[in-house]
UniProtKB/TrEMBL annotation:
The lineage of its organism: Bacteria, Bacillati, Actinomycetota, Actinomycetes, Pseudonocardiales. This is Zinc-dependent alcohol dehydrogenase family protein. Residues 25-129 form the Alcohol dehydrogenase-like N-terminal domain. InterPro entries: ADH-like_C, ADH-like_N, ADH_Zn_CS, GroES-like_sf, NAD(P)-bd_dom_sf. Its cofactor is Zn(2+). Keywords: Metal-binding, Oxidoreductase, Zinc. Belongs to the zinc-containing alcohol dehydrogenase family. Gene3D superfamilies: Medium-chain alcohol dehydrogenases, catalytic domain, NAD(P)-binding Rossmann-like Domain. It comes from Amycolatopsis nalaikhensis.
Length: 345
């Protein structure tokens, strides 16, 4: 088969690779029908995730068709159309019993495209298939479901839910990439009074407006905008959706006393925590890896027409156009790309 293989920082190739095989009775082999690229894949290519070894197949977001299952798999079968979650769950360990699948101790967590081969390939092995692959509801397309592999549950769980967004809140989202736009979509489920989005790129601020943000501002204007919208209090919830020190530190400046900073971005460098300013403000800061415990609920909402993922994908490719798709996704300032999707021909 063909697969997108990481060959060290700054190097990747769409190349021939051995077909995946069942290695445990809980595995399934999936024919990849649709796949996307994540900002985390770009972090890997920059060398920000040193656990990823050379030769690893990247990718952790896909929709596919089950072609083979191990002897212990009981909830999916050959022919089923499934969402392959970015998080794998053994289903047995202490964390999985708490639905904290991202912290799985039994060989799961974020492993696809990280510590085991991922899904940017024609076929993929899915560990713990019973608890890590979700049968698509009738009427849900590959393309719409694809956004539920990572960015929608991540922004919902790590940003909006963990941030405690409530009706009437002032919410500021720093970063209008795909995760930030997904945070707008999910925050709207809780009826905040104002959603303010901060980004440097005018095209991304335009996208934020189309997703329903109320105010779109440059970083230098964020403090004044948040103060005016909140009556001088600051943001009830500040969601960091970039993953660089400057954006995290900006969130800590924009949040009000008693407010919440929810860090969603993947960081590859240290950020300064200004406790000399924050210690007195009763601020809560949370970080986290998505657990995907919300995925079944989000799939139900998608099937019911209560969740719209149609606006995320701006560029579509065939699987064999993987290199071109990476180039487009990695340079949104030139392509205006949000998410790219690649489909089996």
């Amino acid at each position: 088969m063909k697969a997108l293989v990481y060959d060290g920082p700054g190097r990747r190739s769409w190349t021939d690779h051995a077909d995946p095989e069942l290695t445990a009775p809980t595995d399934a082999i999936v024919r990849v029908d649709a796949v996307t690229i994540c900002g985390t894949d770009l972090h890997i290519l920059k060398g920000d995730v040193p656990e990823v070894e050379r030769g690893r197949i990247l990718g952790h977001e896909a929709v596919g068709t089950i072609v083979e299952t191990g002897s212990a798999v009981t909830t999916v079968k050959a022919g089923d159309k499934v969402l392959v979650s970015c998080i794998s769950a053994c289903g047995r360990c202490e964390y999985c019993r708490q639905a904290a699948y991202g912290q799985c101790l039994g060989g799961g967590g974020w492993i696809l495209g990280h510590t085991t081969d991922g899904v940017q390939a024609e076929y993929a092995r899915v560990p713990f298939a019973d608890t890590s692959a979700y049968v698509l509801p009738s009427g849900v397309s590959d393309e719409s479901a694809l956004m539920l592999a990572d960015i929608v549950p991540t922004s919902y769980e790590v940003g909006v839910r963990n941030g405690g967004v409530k009706p009437g809140d002032t919410v500021v989202i720093v970063g209008a990439g795909p995760i930030g736009l997904a945070a707008i979509t999910n925050a709207q489920l809780f009826s905040p009074s104002t959603i303010i989005v901060v980004d440097r790129e005018p095209a991304r601020l335009d996208a934020a407006k189309s997703f329903g943000a109320d105010l779109m501002v440059q970083p230098g204007d964020a403090g004044a905008a948040v103060a005016e919208a909140s009556g001088g209090l600051g943001a009830d919830v500040a969601i960091e959706a970039v993953g660089i020190p400057e954006t995290f530190e900006l969130c800590t400046k924009l949040v009000r006393p008693g407010g919440h900073v929810a860090n969603v971005g993947v960081h590859g460098a240290p950020a300064t925590l200004h406790l000399e300013q924050l210690w007195i403000k009763n601020v809560t800061i949370t970080t986290g890896l998505v657990d995907t415990s919300s995925t079944p609920m989000l799939l139900r909402m998608l099937a019911a027409g209560r969740l719209d993922t149609s606006r995320f994908i701006t560029h579509r490719f065939g699987l064999d156009e993987m290199d071109e798709a990476y180039d487009v996704f990695a340079h949104p300032q030139d392509s205006n790309a949000l998410k790219v999707a690649l489909f089996r021909g």
